[in-house]
Amino acid sequence: MYTTEQLEQMRNQLIRDVDKNSLVDLSSVSIDQEQSSEVKMLSFLEQIQNPYFFKCDETIVEVAFNDNGLQFGDLLQNYFENLKKS
Predict the structure, then answer these.
(1) How far is Cα 39 from Cα 35, in angstroms, rounded to an integer?
(2) CA atoms of 22 and 69, how far apart (whole Å)
(3) What stretch of H or E contains 42?
(4) Roughly what angle, to the nearest 10 degrees, separates helices 72-85 and 37-48?
(5) Contact by Cβ (8 Å): 80, 72
(6) What is the pLDDT of residues 28-78, one digit of tens each?
(7) Tens of pLDDT along 5-35?
(8) CA 48/CA 54 separation, integer angstroms
(9) Residue-wise burial string across 35-67, b where 16 or more C-beta atoms lie within 10 A, e elsewhere
(10) Strand, coil or helix: 72
């Protein structure tokens, strides 16, 4: 699992400094919908490696959050709960 410092370093990276070849493609991430929200979040973080930068095909995706918005864990939980409903 990541330390707070490691997550902070990832969050503060600039997109121009990210090595595209080191990023995980989102399509390669597989989540077991039968698991608890906590297990699904941990699995996602382990597989994606950098929750702030990843690829969708050849496109680099940068994830940013509003300081006054939901916490990252809450957003992931909402995402996986909505997937299960679909």
Answers:
(1) 6
(2) 29
(3) helix 37-48
(4) 110
(5) no
(6) 999 999 999 899 989 999 999 999 999 999 999 998 877 777 777 788 888
(7) 998 899 999 999 999 999 999 999 999 999 9
(8) 7
(9) eebeebbebbbeebebbbbbbeeeeeeeeeeee
(10) helix
Supply the range of the domain harboring residue 55: 4-85
What Cα–Cα distance (Å) separates residue 78 from each residue in 35, 56, 83?
A: 14, 20, 9
Counted domains in the chain: 1
Dist. CA 41–CA 78, nearest whole Å: 11
d(CA 9, CA 19): 15
- Quick one: tokens of 31? 């989540």
What tokens does 22 get? 């080191």
Residue carrying structure tokens 């297990």 = 39
The amino acid at 81? E
Task: Give SS3 for 74.
Answer: helix
